[in-house]
Request: fold
Amino acid sequence: MKTRHLILILLLFAVLFASTSGFASAQSKTKEEVEGEIGAEIERYIDSLDLADFEEYVKSMEMPEEMSGGVRGLIMKFVNGEVPISVKGLFTYVGKQALGALTGTLSVLLTVVIIAVMNSILAGLTSGFVKQQTIEIVHYVCYALVVSIVMAKVGGIVVECRAFCKGVEKFTEGAFPPLITLMSALGGNVSASIYKPQLAVFSMLIGSLFGKVILPLFVAAIAFCLIGNLSSNVKMDKIQSAIRYCSTLILSAAFGLFMTYLTVAGITGGMVDGVSIKAAKFVLSGYVPILGGYLSQGFDLISAGCVLIKNSIGMIGIIVVLYMIVKPILHVTIFSFALKIVASLIQPIGDKRVSDFLYSVSNATKILVTTILGTGFVLILTLLLMVVTCNVGVL
Reply:
């Protein structure tokens, strides 16, 4: 019996000696060596994450040179304290996209101006020589040409907005699973259980909302714009206003309710997880004899690395969302603004019905602008909530 006690005492001294030696050796390491070990651990954590879908989506986007190097390279830039985006790079990208949208829009609307001016000149020259019915036929022909040109551009914008919605689905499938995985690894099980189904719901919501509600309403608004300006006797501007109001109301209600629930649930889940993480650290340091303090410090180091990676992925996601919404929002906004300018130019010299048609189409595009901005805002808010989740309990 005494021999067994002696063996246990010797084992205890051996453990104490090993832990003390390890602590002393850790203390003797230089700052560069410790930073190198931490960097190696962070790289190991990054390699263990499934970032293939996110990587594929980022590579498929038209991104500036600063964002090159893949998702893993961008994470390491954030970890090293570098921000892979500059004001100059952002303005250069925005200017490039705006110039492309402006070039494509001006060539289309310049043709519309030429047709409207020719129609006005022809109507003025022949007003005393031909019947009014003939002038109306000429107007309908010119009006049909204007409508076909504008509708072709509107169709391209609708296709671009559809591609944006598909991009949102791919983004949510690629960016959010690693974030949820890291939250679960940090002990944020409550937050992970909240975000996982809600993000799937949002991905389905934006696709269904745009495809089955917003797009039909937009097409209906354009159709009423077209019909309402065929003749001066047909008035449909109130119907167009009602459609725009309904679409804005639907989008505001859907995005508002989703953001309210996600914000309240996300903050509540983050608070609960923060308390749970602090409690786990207290139990580890207080109830594990002798080695509890060292284990708690090791836990802090591992958790800090996970938080750093999680926050880096979240910030990369926010930057990607900003670049994702720049192109469609610029194309739609520039097209809408150009329509208003052309409508104001045509009004004094051309047919009023053509001017009213262009102005009505410009107002209808506000539906698409609201959809894109609302989707981008919800994505950025969600990423910010996920970035701050679990930070309180670890840092």
Residues 86-394 form one domain. The chain has one domain: 86-394. Residues 1-28, 290-298 have pLDDT under 50 and may be disordered. The CA atoms of residues 36 and 42 lie 10 Å apart.
